[in-house]
Amino acid sequence: MNTRSHYDVVIIGAGMAGLAAGIRLAHFGRQVCIFERHNAVGGLNGFYSRDGRRYDVGLHALTNYVPPGVKGTPLTKLLRQLRIDRDDFALRGQLGSRIAFGPGIADLRFTNDFPVLEAEVARAFPAQIDGFRTLVAAVRAHDEVSLDAAPASAREVVRRHLSDPLLEDMLFCPVMFYGSATERDMDFSQFVILFKALFLEGFARPAEGVRRILRVLLAKYREAGGERRMKCGVRRIVLRNGRAAGVELDDGAVITADHVLSSAGAPETESLLSAGGLPTPRPTAPGRLSFLETITVLDRPPAALGWSGDTIVFFNEGRRFDYACPEAPADVRSGVICLPNNFAYEPEEALREGWFRVTALARPEDWAAWPEPEYRARKQEWFAAVQASARRFLPPVADADLAAATVATDMFTPRTITRFTGHQRGAVYGSGVKHRRGLTAAPNVYLCGTDQGFLGIVGAMLSGISMANHHILQRG
Amino acid sequence: MTKDECKKVVLDIIADIAPDEDLTNVRPEVRLRDQLQLDSMDFLDIVMELRKRHGIEVPEADYLQLASLDSCAEYLTPKFNALPAKG
Residue A2 pLDDT more than 70? Predict the structure, then answer.
């Protein structure tokens, strides 16, 4: 029973960032407790069960994947910092992914072997290949994790190297879908983090999905002596003389702490400080980007329908890619298809059922406002529209064949995301403004997680690690 | 504690922090950074593990003393021997 009323460190949120920070702090002897409002861990990268089936939320693939022996990348740093054996994550590499514009305008294939993408660019855009190579050199040379990098427009930097807007948008499409919290353009450091994570490193997945990763993190955290309390949200940060004295929980109990590390998001943490009487002078605006996802469970692997070669497909209708909050409940013109069966699993790991997931941009206000019956009706309507749009970019399958193979469907929306993550407006990638140093209006309250600015699930864990190191452990 | 025992303590810590490094042929006189892939996060972990496991404090100004196994032994052995006896 976790009943202490004082901790060295209180962590808000049991997502990837909070768990990773907790492991570090507990390992080095800090009394630490994670408070999570939801009944499940994982936050944006969680899972839920329905009709005996477990669905992943968020995770299509772990990005930043490098094979054993490659060192000095975010995945290796993460494993070392958390003392996790890479075999414990049981990561299996992707079969191959694709950026598809059109349908039929241009396709670029990529794998966990970067030269494949380079050759594809040379094939489809021969006049751009030199520029592409200088762009890649600039990406490799950039220190994207510096806590003090000056902001720069990624579009401007990329245009110094590439003159074909089609190739530019084809590269931005996966990069933005997998992590941009800002519309149409992004900070160059964010672009570099994602370009490396997606293209220079790669995609992998444990056969069990995100549960495997969460289980390993929880076991480490428990072994190290960390505590957690579930269904136990923080409703305000209690302040004394401008510093956090602790947190007040949803049930009114007060827990005191020397430090508070919040993975709730920047605007959300500012609200908790405000509720405690410390307003933030220039509050962070909530993000504008949210998503919905259709999930189709099949009685056979996607390969049996002819969908064998693709792990992830980033698709876009036409030549120009518009990454922005849609002016309708969803924007079906572009999206991300994920076929979780198409990773290089060991034979005995093969998934029992087939999975076909499609993510698309969504406007959160609509999904948040509809009363339950309308919400359910709209889900059905948009499910069909999103799935139909995505299928234009896959080998054709007759509607009747797909229907016959379908055993279950589900869908999550910005409403679901808000429920799982507490992010205002269902903002998956958090606020458009990142706080690299993790500082807030209170000197002993720090941010970690998506609003600190490292991206993807490896980035989220590294964010928790770096903030725990920087603000707490290195101060002795 | 002898200097060789001290080197063993440091190597044990590195083995736990970086199990993907081959430590069988680490040369004591060569900088660790030049023969292993250890970054600043890893060096900080060596410092923190020394504190956690052995109660040894290494102030930031002295981090350079941990560059090689030999320099670690020179610097840390007296610190180990100055620890109050366990009991």
Answer: no
The closest CB to that of B16, out of A77, A83, A86, belongs to A83
Q: What is the pLDDT of residues A333-367, one digit of tens each?
A: 999 999 999 999 999 999 999 999 999 999 999 99
Q: Are A1 and A13 in contact (CB under 8 A)?
A: no
Q: Which of A174, A188, A198 is nearest to A64 (CA)?
A: A198
- Residue A431 CA to residue A435 CA, distance in Å, equals 10
ipTM of the complex model? 0.91
**A373: exposed, middle or buried (C-beta count within 10 Å: 0-12, 13-18, 19+)?**
exposed
Task: Decide which of 1.10.1200.10, 3.20.20.30, 1.10.10.60, 3.90.180.10 is the CATH code for B3-81.
Answer: 1.10.1200.10
Confidence check: pLDDT of B86 > 70: no
Radius of gyration of chain A (CA): 22
Q: pLDDT-derived band of residue A214, with 50, 70 and 90 as boundaries?
A: very high
φ, ψ of residue A316 to 5 degrees: the values are -150, 135
Fold of A6-59+210-285+429-475: FAD/NAD(P)-binding domain (3.50.50)
Q: How far is CA A306 from CA A352, A394, A420, in A?
A: 18, 9, 34
- Chain A hits for B19, CB-CB cut-off 8 Å, are 85
Query: What pLDDT score does A21 carry?
Result: 98
Chain A residue numbers touching B16 (CB-CB < 8 A) = 83
CATH code 3.90.660 region(s) in chain A: 86-208+288-425
Lookup result for tokens 């940060």: A237
| Residue in the block written with tokens 């494949």 | A116
**With bands split at pLDDT 50, 70 and 90, how would you rate the model's confidence at A476?**
low
In the predicted structure, residue A278 carries a pLDDT above the cut 60:
yes
Q: Is B30 on the interface with A (CB under 8 A)?
A: no
**C-alpha closest to that of A329 among A259, A391, A386:** A386
Interface with chain B: mutation pick from A80, A82, A470, A472, highest number of B CBs within 10 Å: A80
Q: Does the domain made of A86-208+288-425 have the CATH classification 3.40.50?
A: no
Tens of pLDDT along A414-464? 998 888 788 888 888 889 889 989 999 999 999 999 999 888 899 999 999
